[in-house]
Structure formats: structure tokens, C-alpha cells
Amino acid sequence: MKKLAWLLLAALPLQGMAQERMEDPIGRACYYCNAGEMYERARSLGVGEHYVYDSASQTNIQGFNVTNVGGEMVATHFVPPAWIRIQYNAMMKMYDPSSGRFVDQWGMVNLQPPGSPHVLMEQIQSDNVLWGHHVSDLNPRHPEARETVRRMLARASRFDFLKADTEHGRILRFESQLQGGSPLISRLNILFFLGWVESFFDYETRQWVYLQSSDGGNLIQESADDFVRPDGSPRRLKNTREFDPYFRQRAAWAGVDVVGAAPEYFYRDATYLCSRMAGRTQCLLESVTVPPRAHDRPESGLPQSSGDRQARRAQRGEQPAHQPDPQRPLQPAPQQLG
Length: 338
Description:
Order of helices and strands: HHEHEEEHEEHHEEEEEHEEEH
Number of strands: 14
Strand order of the largest sheet: 4-3-2-1-7
Helix content: 10-25%
Distance between the termini: 33 Å
Shape: elongated
Strand content: 25-35%
Radius of gyration: 26 Å
């Protein structure tokens, strides 16, 4: 999975990059430390210039210059440069202690996917909004979609703090990031509740790199392996009716066999059991959920939705007012925000 990508990048040698720019400073954690303990932490790091921060504070980062005086480590305090304080404050505001990541939540985002809207009218129209289905490895046009996301992030003023060192272009890193932990993540929450798209910041190339995406309920599959569990055992997947055609399309791109046709009548969601047998992955349509019949519902006095009306038409054997076309990507209808 792409979520391991920053771990691999963290292990790359730094020598080549160091020849091209000054080395990035490292912030060293000192949990709930007072001033004296921060001095001790700096001395323990040996001779050199060090930055020590109190992880319980979004603003407390201090600089120390450690020298060897007669065989004794002596730490001299200095105020960190403004650009380091700017970057530290910005990063700590994004820190998510539950995941150990620095996450920038951005919503609601409205980007155009490849092929929209500048396509010939006789061609199949693509979605009007870019979401996880477009950036998946399985989508033939995912490089274009990911480039759109990358350019948006690269030009976003919300990440100007990464350019705060206007003289040398350095970026403050955290000690945990040296072992591949605590990545800087941008999560784009997509318009119309179409899930999210995550990218991580590669400190070596100074570029945003696609990580993973979700439709809000499931992670978007990137390969045939993602339809089953990591150990290869069967996985049960549930899709809402709106996302079901896209799930089937990704399965087709991955060479995964989907057994069972999608219902022609209105349904709420579909559940699949995906398994691997003899090296071949298959997703069996196990069940679909339909709205309860009108006479089974308690009287609420609330207006009935269009989905309710379509369900009643299906029960009477009438043709639904709208049927999803799996061959034609669905264009989500605007929803009330708030």
C-alpha cells in the first residue's frame, strides 16, 4: 500500500541532497520539560547546534549551541530563527496524537478530473469532481489526476510555512521523521462528500506525493491485492449504491471477477465477499439492501425522498425514474452542506 511510501523514502541516503542544499535542522523532543531539563537534553546530543522542543506546547522550541569546554559539554541558549519558529508552530497545530501524524485537513475541495469538462460531446463524460476513483493506481488516467492534486498543493498558500527559510530553503524536521514516522499529510476532503485524498510531503524532493484515498466508507483499491485482506484471506466489502458502479469498474481494471449483476431496482448498498482462489481474485455479490416498504415504516409526517418513491415503484413493478449505468461514471448531485 502507498501508506508505506514515506517509510521507504525516509531510508534513502541523504548525501546527494546535502551537496545541493544546507542540511535541514532537527527538532528533538523533550516531553513536558522545564528549562533545566531542556539544557540537559541539548548537552546529551553532543557538540553542535540543536533545537529542543516541549511536545506539550505548540510554541516552545529553543535553540542551543553545545561546545566542549575542558571535556565538559556546555550548552548556550539562543532564540531560534523566525523561520524555525514559524514552521514549528504550523506543524504542531496540525499534529494528530491519535495517529502520530501531522495532518492538514482541507475541505471541501473541488478539482476537475482528467477529461472534464474539455471532452468531445460524443465521448462518455467523466465526473465533474476529482476524487479517489481518479487517483487510484487502477485508473488508466491516474497520473494526470495526481498531477492536478500535486500542483494544487504546491501552490497552496496554507503551506507557505514550508518556504519560510527564504535564504537557504531549509525545513525543520522532527526526530521521529528520521525513522519514517510522523509524516506531513495533506487530506483533501472532496466536495459532495466523495471521501478524501491524502498526499504526503517528501522532504528530500520537496514534493507532494500521492498516498491513499477513500470514498468515505472504504479505502480505494490500488491493485487486485486490495480486494482481499493483506494476508490474502477473504474480505467483505460494502458499497453504497452511488459508489457501486465505480467499485465494479476498478475490479474490471484490476482483473478481478465480479459475480452477480447489480440490481436494476433501487437499492441502498451492496455487499461483496472477495476472495482469492488459485491465484485469481473474485468478488461475489452476497446481498443488497433495499429501503423498507412504505407500509412497514412508522408514520413520521416527514416528506418522502425520491429514493422512497423509486423503491415503491420497484415494488409495484414499475420502471425506476433513474437507473445507474455502470459504464457511465456517475455525476454526484449537489448536497446541502452544513
